[in-house]
Amino acid sequence: MPAVNLKAATKVYCSIFFDLNVRCLLCGQAPGGLLCHPCLSLLAPIEPPVCRCGLPHAAPLEDQDEAPLCGRCLRRPPAFSASQSPLQYRFPLDLLIRRYKHHGDLVAERAIEQLLARAPLPWPDTDALCPLPAHWRRRWRRGFDQSERLARRLASLWDRPLLSALQRQRFTPMQQGLSRRQRQRNLRQAFRPVKDVRGLRLVLVDDVMTTGSSARAAADCLLKQGAAEVRVWTLARTPAP
Ligand SMILES: [Zn+2]
Ligand SMILES: [Zn+2]
Question: Rounded to the nearest whole angstrom, what is the distance from the C-alpha of residue 159 to the centroid of ligand 1?
Fold first, then answer.
């Protein structure tokens, strides 16, 4: 049996438990944390007021509760009643999320958890959090479902139950690069309810909202099953084109 290098082993364990020698995941410099302060300051927030689709838009008028809808939402109002993302999906956050999602990098997950911990629950009347599920084939290929993991973490941070109420029932190919019509066709009946959601105010959770088509389809499914309200929370939102 080879002799254990005690000094090296201790160093490894210390670095795991005390984050010694940990370099910033984004720039590889500035030891002392998974995300350094200069990189954190590069993350672009999305400032309210936002439209129902989560993109910055006009504030509500004085005598109205809800903000006016943007042109896109006016043409096709989303089934969900609000959506919010604290950060824009752009450099350098896109690198971090891709590293997490496509490589299953659990160190990146810890960095993302730091960002989650800074985000308050925007809707205090929320009854439960529901992950926007990936199809089992994609989950199997990646080895995990990032929306489920994010929702689980948020459920503990926000002290709300996790309710995995939806399953994907059709395999929807990668939505990037498809026209809106093609996306809609793919997403029609993409979700299947697997839990009782009657009367519940739910928040759908995912990592990134791009066009919002999946969130629309999922919210539609939950509302048809009797959910009282569906809102959407994603860590990041693709800025308006
Ligand atoms: Zn950095
Ligand atoms: Zn809108």
Answer: 30
**Quick one: residue 216, left, alpha or beta (phi over 0 = left, psi -120 to 50 = alpha)?**
alpha
Ligand nearest to the CA of 49: 2
Same domain, yes or no, for 28 and 143? no
- 56/31 same-domain check: no
Q: Are residues 72 and 25 in the same domain?
A: no
Q: What is the pTM of this model?
A: 0.84
As a whole-number percent, the residues of the chain with pLDDT over 90 amount to: 54
* Residues, Cβ < 5 Å to ion ligand 1: 24, 26-27, 36, 39
- What is the whole-number distance in angstroms between the Cα of residue 35 and the centre of ligand 2? 31
Total domain count for the chain?
2
Domain that holds residue 107: 44-237
Q: What are the tens digits of pLDDT across the range 148-178?
A: 999 999 999 999 999 999 998 866 556 667 7
Return d(Cα 237, Cα 86) in angstroms, integer: 8
133 Cβ contact list (under 8 Å, min separation 6): 139, 145, 147, 148, 164, 166, 167, 168, 191
* 20 band by pLDDT with thresholds 50, 70 and 90: low
Region for 233 from its dihedrals, namely left if φ exceeds 0, alpha if ψ lies in -120 to 50, beta otherwise: beta
